[in-house]
What we know:
The structure is a homodimer of 457-residue chains. With 457 residues, chain A is an alpha/beta fold. In chain A, 38% of the residues lie in helices and 23% in strands. The first copy, chain A, has an eight-stranded mixed β-sheet, sandwiched between helices. The first copy, chain A, has a seven-stranded mixed β-sheet with strand order 2-8-4-5-6-7-3.
Amino acid sequence: MRIAILLIFLANFLFAQKNEDSLSIRKIYSYHLTESASYVNLHSLCKDVGARLSGSKQAEKAVEWAKQAMVKAGADTVYLVPCMVPHWVRGKKEQCYVNGNSKNNLESFAICVLGGSVATPTQGITAKVIEVFSFDELEKLGAEKIKGNIVFYNVSFDQNFVHTGSAYGKAVKYRSGASMAAKYGAVASITKSMTTSNNDFPHTGTMKYDTLVQQKIPAFAISAKGAKRLNTLLSQNKNLELHLFSDCKTLPDEPSYSVVGEIRGNETPNEIIVVGGHLDSWDLGEGAHDDGAGIVQSIEVLSSFKKLGVKNKRTIRAVAFMNEENGTRGGKSYAAMAAKENKKHIAALESDMGGFTPKAIGIDAKKDTLLYYKKWQPLFDPYFVFIKQGGGGVDIGELVKAGVPQFSLEPDSQRYFDFHHTADDIFENVNKRELELGAATINSFIYLIDKYGTYKK
Amino acid sequence: MRIAILLIFLANFLFAQKNEDSLSIRKIYSYHLTESASYVNLHSLCKDVGARLSGSKQAEKAVEWAKQAMVKAGADTVYLVPCMVPHWVRGKKEQCYVNGNSKNNLESFAICVLGGSVATPTQGITAKVIEVFSFDELEKLGAEKIKGNIVFYNVSFDQNFVHTGSAYGKAVKYRSGASMAAKYGAVASITKSMTTSNNDFPHTGTMKYDTLVQQKIPAFAISAKGAKRLNTLLSQNKNLELHLFSDCKTLPDEPSYSVVGEIRGNETPNEIIVVGGHLDSWDLGEGAHDDGAGIVQSIEVLSSFKKLGVKNKRTIRAVAFMNEENGTRGGKSYAAMAAKENKKHIAALESDMGGFTPKAIGIDAKKDTLLYYKKWQPLFDPYFVFIKQGGGGVDIGELVKAGVPQFSLEPDSQRYFDFHHTADDIFENVNKRELELGAATINSFIYLIDKYGTYKK
């Protein structure tokens, strides 16, 4: 009998607790949907600062912008974590057209040179184009067919994946296909953009040269539409020649910063919860989804704790990491700083998959650990958000090496690679409510971690 | 010991069964993401047919279009279910501008007359504008303030709801606010559009006159941006006059049809599973999300059963219902036909919430029944789709009255009311993969209902 009463008491207690959490989370969602500054902040970051590739003047401006936004959000302390970043510049608008006799009749393609590439010679490159659909095919053709030509990696984005990140993961190696092409004597490479769409925006992104291949050749990306057209032209004329030009270059590294804003914990301030995204973006577009969204969402977590009067137990740190796109120097220098602090990072959550409707919180954990967080699933059911296995982020990846549990916001991925790394990744392509729901979701999860802590064995 | 062995056997059996279903569902998703005709069909419906309000020539064309699409999808039998539909026409482009002395300097607003409204007199209506924020406020003002004036319902769309359909449900009564305004002597009503956005598209939709109020006055909708501007102007000048014009009219009812395409069941063909959407649309835009999406998704369910070689036990019927928007005549005549058939409808599923990423299958059922379907949740986890309580549709609502269980596809609702009933509900605003994932989700659920049947007490 006594046990039964105890069980009823316990059940009531658990119900009350769950109910209290439900209400708190509903308040957090309401804050974001009706009061938050996410959308106006994103507008400001996109329009007042704009594209902000590491090492650029705009990246410098973005650091100042983030500092001010974090102060405005109510952070107790705002500070910078220095790092040296690469400084690659695109230079003049690239050129890519079909070589022909009549200057008035040159068909051109929407291309961009990939981040980290070397330039063409000043007069450009004119050569025949060899189309391949895989590295295997390239190897089979070998030096005999490739030498002196441009390699065109026409590799399609696999639409069969439900989560487009998986298709990206499968295709992205071709973005660094220049060295493999150079091994067989190619003079340049062109890679079909990594995209779900069929439009005419070329997608930039970082490319790396294989240190084992001495020759560095320029590496371009062509729009999906352009790739289709080039394929057609090549099927009509195997001797088709393209003219390519870029004067991009790599300058000396520049000093830069990640920006940290924190609200000190009221009970165990030496326990740190990080929520962040990356402040740098590619030089095309405005870095709206990638990753202006993650930045403004992280800043609004601070703002909501202040505005809703939540007394966080642990210290909440919003971190705007520098240089995710081409170096992760911000992530590395932050982790190095964290290693020297006499504090403990208990969790790190990254939002870097766009400002779309949240579908899940991803957790990088094994089954036992996952079950601990899965208990919170009913709290997220009203928002159609799953708590799922697998998650993390590039910037917080450096903290993970030191054993910090990592989490990520997983928004709907269907449209991300329509915009990713293009001139079309602009403020206008972010929906206010989707952005806000993403912020509310990470905010709610951070709230629960702060209240109940992370999994302990 | 024997029970233990039996349990292991049972567990293995259940696991194998679950695994087989997982694979079947993965095949269904693959079909839709890589082979389906949903997107090209939607393009054709939007561009070759276009807007298709009941009674119009385009609605007639849409019937022919649906017939052909269902034959092409591999339906065994395609037939029409007749119904008489209302025939309201918008007429000339509406006018709404600030009345003033100088004809060259008239500020105008983006408005549209609401479906079912009466026209203004030929010379239009010029009157002062009384802004109210609720029916309560209107009643308090009473005939003294309202008589002879235009009532402007400036009721905001409540952004606090996570599911935008709830905000719509709360605000939509103001679309039929004309009679309430007429009761106090108003000469016209203008309602702020039911929308999540702040853009300049007015949203049409059906309005109804209260039969208890004799006077019918013209009912308009103004864009969200226009409502904000009008509010500002009224705060500056309480005597501001607007000029309104519409020559819309209601013509006699027209004969029309719902279109049915079915694949006969292989085991119990007299058990019917309906999957459908509505073929008619508003006259603005192209009816892309509302409800071209539901039509092409339903048709592709047939196509996938054929292409994947699924031997359905029950008869699967795709139904393109006519006249959801302003009469539900198609839903009613279909239900009347069904009542006379010597067959049993075991389930009806409607897709009429846009071609956005699926978030849930909604089930109109009590707890016991829900638990039966909830067993399928793990099959939908990989697609981030919830099985949830609450669901249905306007067209299938008529079948429900005869006891048929109803289900609905619930796509992400965040952007639906940006486009709903506007000139911007066009093909270009539907994302291919989102549309296809919606089709795959209903297809998978229909597959499971066909295989396992619906809940039986």
